[in-house]
Design a protein that fits this description.
This protein is an alpha/beta fold. It folds into 3 domains: 167 residues, 3-Layer(aba) Sandwich (Rossmann fold), CATH 3.40.50.300; 83 residues, Rossmann fold, CATH 3.40.50.11420; 115 residues, Rossmann fold (3-Layer(aba) Sandwich). It contains 14 helices and 14 strands. The protein has a 6-stranded mixed beta sheet, with helices on both faces. Strands 8-7-9-10 form a 4-stranded parallel beta sheet, sandwiched between helices. α8 links the parallel β9 and β10. The longest helix is centred in the N-terminal third of the chain and has 16 residues. The radius of gyration is 24 Å and the shape is globular. The two termini are 40 Å apart. About 3% of the residues have low confidence.
Length: 402
Amino acid sequence: MSDKAPRGVRLVIALAGRRNAGKSSLINAITGQDIAIVSDHPGTTTDPVAKHYELIPLGPVTFYDTAGLDDEGDLGGLRVKATNKVLLRSDLAVVVIGDEGLDAYEQKTIARIRELDIPFLVVFNKSDRSAPTAADTAWCEAEGITWLAVSATTGENITELKEALIAAAPPEFRDEPLLCRDLVDAGQWAVCVVPIDLSAPKGRLILPQVQVLRDLLDAGALAVTVKEFELAGALSGLKDDPALVITDSQVIDKVAATVPERVPTTTFSTLFARYKGDIGPLVEGARAIDTLKDGDKVLVAEACSHHVADDDIGRVKIPQWMKRATGKDIVFDVYAGHDFPEDLEQYALCIHCGSCMLNRREMLRRIRECVRRGVPITNYGVAISKLQGVLERVIRPLGLTP
């Protein structure tokens, strides 16, 4: 189960600390498997190593064994940069303290984790060799930091560490955020519109569509899935209006013209804007489309890496629609996967994908960072609805107004 769970629904737990603090040994002890290479030689872990694990009752998680944040030299600097990228998308962090104890270096690491608003624990490893000093534990207590003394070698307090991780997990991993089950009652019909175009994966639906269908089934709703040209027939075949129509954003104009105004209608991407982030700033950010000028740069942020088709939504269709709607000569930059530009201020707008491959904390952090630096941010579904003139209708089922 743990290996099959989508990346975007996993709790990401990063182990950070100096070289040779025992991070690799600790991951092996937590998971009960020899996943990470262990050596007394400092700097054995050169790149972040991911280990999937089922941490009950939280469900699937990914532990990241990272390179030491005190790595040196040009190559060491690149390793530290990779570790910091992992921290940026982490939901929970474990600061591992080794033989050197907790000093100014660890305090700097903790300050950085706090700046990123990541819940964390301090773990004094190697307790079989020496106990943490009274000064170190007193500092943690004065700072309100949960700490444990463990031994990856003997297994001392490893169970207690797992329990502490569960207790420290962000609320959204204990209380599932809403996708669409609050919009449809048990026994009501919901219609999902799924176009099959060149960008559709062969033989399967994309993750947002699958998750929406599962959420509808969990709500006890009666879900029917059709292609856009089958929608009118499906609606006429229902005895009553469906409680909700959910469509791929690419055909929202056709769907909005087909579905009566009285029927609540939204998009998969709009639902994910609420599920994976904060939809308010994404709706607000769409207004920036009206203020774009010639030469403005727009960031297109994709959470996954994929082969680019001729009708790619983020790289082809959205730029075409925006240029047509605004009449402006706009420059588009595309960042994919976990890459996100540091120089955000150069952009007049960020248009993000539906973030099905990101966890919620990483998406929220991206939204907050754009807002903090004065860069409007929206997402594919909200932007397309704005460009097609149906944004008010699409967000209405969520109780929002543009």
